[in-house]
Amino acid sequence: MPKIERRERIKINLSPRNSFDLSMTTNRQKHGLAVVEPDNYGHDTPPAAQDLLRTVMIAHLVAPHFPRIIETNFGVEFSEFLTRFYDHYGYQPPKIKRSIEQVGISYAKPTEEKRNTVTTASAHSGGLDSVFRLIRFLERGEDIVAVHLRNLNAKGNFAEAAASQEQCRAWGIPYELVRLKNSSGNTGFEVMKTRDLLLALIVAISTHPRNVSKIVIEGGMSADPTGTQFSEYTGAWEMFNQLLADAGLSSQVEGIDPGDIETVGEILRLEKKLGLSILPLVQNCFSAPFQVGGNRKKWDRVTPILSKNSPEQWCGSCLKCRRMSLGRIYYRDDRLRKMPSREITAFVADTYDWMRKYPRPEMISQSFLDHLHALQDRV
Question: What average pLDDT score do residues 344-358 get?
């Protein structure tokens, strides 16, 4: 993992107006993380659960820096989370010091709002893997609520939020939106130090009034801590689930392994079985919106049938879009039945060329490689 330039001391302040609004300053640059929507976020949840969220938010803010001293203007509970987080990367636990001026914590209050009880909640991004989780629950006739956390990532937030809501409307799935104000500076692949833990806890608190007992997120965690980010390590999740129980929350988190190209084939099967249009609604692209049109021009020219029958929000060229196209071609999506072999050959050749230049080859799965090789042999 990249070497971190540690800081000696970082001060984190809690806003007196929002008990889920934290800010810090590094190199004269202000960073922050706040839950800003819904207004009554955290209502009808135990105060301890709200304390736990503030601690996980602290971890997300300091993750790029691992300061030796964390100074706060509020009391920090569940410091054992920070201890385990630091230990995972080989650091001594931080010293938590309280500044002279302290802010009183205002806990979210109980309400009279009644929400339908649901057994399971899914952290829903609107991408392929989270869509697959929802549809599998629909297939089994099990109740589920989708929770989308907007602004968790650095880009694509509006499109993801709009797509996730449209998906749930189309498929008749209850939907909740939680919006962050996120200027944490915690981005890129390093965000995985804490991202999924933050996501899971926000979903657990949001759905606690529904008596949800299980939170499902993307799986694929590793039992080996070596070279593994904290939120990708099974040991971290075992500790985290215990903290959820200690905080009085009703749910436990379970990771569902997403698969890869096989997932596209499964969704094609489920479209036929359930009579639903699923793949066209998937928000599944790494490219920024302004790049999509330019990237698609090549595919309009080289693989016109594939391009014409692909959703307009897919660029066709990034890893996620190639994953979708490869799965659709390999598993014979009916929408591509008129795609000639010369287009398939062109897609395969272009993808091999793209792989040779791709800067993150470790992100290309064995499933992707196996399906690409098999498709090449088939044509």
Answer: 96
pTM: 0.93
Query: Whose CA is closest to 122, among 175, 197, 63?
Result: 175
186: which residues sit within 8 A by CB, 6+ positions away?
60, 61, 63, 64, 193, 194, 195
The string of pLDDT tens digits covering residues 295-333 is 899 999 999 999 999 999 999 999 999 999 999 999 999
Kindly write down the DSSP assignment for every residue of 194-232, as one continuous string. THHHHHHHHHHHHHGGGT--EEEEE---BS--TT--GGG
Distances (CA, A) of 129 to 10, 267, 284: 36, 10, 10
Q: Are 152 and 178 in contact (CB under 8 A)?
A: no
Distance CA 60, CA 327 (A): 34
| Lowest-pLDDT range of 102-106, 157-161, 364-368 | 157-161
Tell me: the pLDDT tens digits for 282-297? 987 877 777 788 889 9
Backbone angles phi, psi at 323, to 5 degrees: -60, -45
DSSP state of 279: G
- Distance between alpha carbon 177 and the CA centroid of its chain, in Å? 14
Question: b/e per residue, 56-82, with b = 16+ CB within 10 A?
Answer: bbbbbbbbbbbbbebbbbbebbbeebb
The answer to whether 285 and 314 are in contact (CB under 8 A) is: yes
In angstroms, rounded to a whole number, what is the distance separating the alpha carbons of residues 175 and 145? Answer: 6
Sole residue written with tokens 């189309």: 170
178 Rama sector, left if φ>0, alpha if ψ -120 to 50, beta otherwise:
beta
Compute the distance between CA of residue 131 and CA of residue 34 in angstroms, rounded to an integer. Answer: 26
Element (H, E) at 149: strand 144-150
How far from the centroid of its chain's Cα atoms is residue 194's Cα?
Answer: 11
DSSP-derived secondary structure letter, 112: S
Of the candidates 121, 332, 327, 88, which has an alpha carbon nearest to the alpha carbon of residue 226? 88
